[in-house]
Design brief:
The chain is of the alpha+beta class and 186 residues long. Helices cover 23% and strands 9% of the residues. It is built from six helices and four strands, in the order ββααββαααα. The chain has a two-stranded antiparallel ribbon. A two-stranded antiparallel sheet has the order 2-3. The two termini are 30 Å apart. The mean pLDDT is 80.
Amino acid sequence: LVLIPRGQAIIGYIPSNFDAQAARKDPAIVWSGTPPRRQELSSFWIDVIEVTRSAYAECVDAGVCSAARCAPGSAIDDARTHAAVPDELVSSLPQTCVTFQQAERYCEFRGQRLPTEAEWELASRGPIGARYPWGEEAIDDIPLGLIPAEWSKAEPSFFGALGMGISAFEWVNEVYEPDAALMPLI
């Protein structure tokens, strides 16, 4: 775990090709996440690496979590996922194909909780709201598909968390609200 200090999260981003006219017509779909907004957060802890398949299996073996199941026809667990990963490292791949409820249950099993969207963005993009977890520049050597959780050391976030912005998607403890950026913070 890494401690993320109290601070302001910048949520959302204005892309370089932002079109204000298009955003006025359909802000939720065309430019979700704009305009950026700030949110003050208390300090919190977040995992340094993504939840691995072996870590999730411990929860399943304990009878607390249900087994992960990919949706029929899902490309998440197809051959390209494991193409460059030796069999002995498959257990260190990020756990995919879990529902929100399964992710929440796993966190409870570990005595933790899912981060909020703002917490995830602060842990990922830092207090400056960088475009990517590793900074402002795109990286063209990020592999396609899943990679073992600890292999992403070259792209740590502002606070040193790994795998944010590459490999698997992460759950947060909020329902996606496409118009969130248009609502005042209360």
